[in-house]
Amino acid sequence: MIALERRSGLLRSIPVFAALPEPALRALALACGEERHEAGGVVVREGGAGDCLYVLADGQAEVTAQAKQGPIPLAALGPGEMFGELALLLPGGERQATVTTTAPSLLLR
Predict the structure, then answer these.
(1) In angstroms, rounded to a whole number, what is the distance separating the alpha carbons of residues 97 and 87?
(2) CA 54, 55, 60, 63 torsion-angle sign
(3) pLDDT digit string, tens, across residues 56-89
(4) What is the pLDDT confidence band of residue 92, given thresholds at 50, 70 and 90?
(5) What is the DSSP letter of 32?
(6) Is residue 84 within 8 Å of 99, Cβ to Cβ?
(7) What is the pLDDT of residue 90?
C-alpha cells in the first residue's frame, strides 16, 4: 500500500494535478486504487475501453501501438509518469496504445 503522503507527492509532480489545492489533492490521492503488475503485464490494451488514467509509482512500462508490421514502441515510462488520459478525453473513450510493464510495477489508478 502506498502511503497517502507519497500518493499526494506523485500526483503533485504531474503538471495537470500540480495546481490543485491541498484538500482536493489529498481527496484525489485517497480515491486512487492501486494495481500491481509483474514484468510483461498488460495494463491497458489499444482499442479497449478507457475509464481511468494511471500513474506509475514504481517500475517501468513500454507504450506501443499496433502497425501492419507489428507493435511499434512509442515511449518508455518510469516512476511518476502518467498514461491513459487520452481515453478519458477523446470521444468514445478508446485506448490509443497498449501499455505493458517491463519490470514489476505498482500503479495508482
Answers:
(1) 10
(2) positive
(3) 999 999 999 999 999 999 999 999 999 999 998 8
(4) confident
(5) -
(6) yes
(7) 85
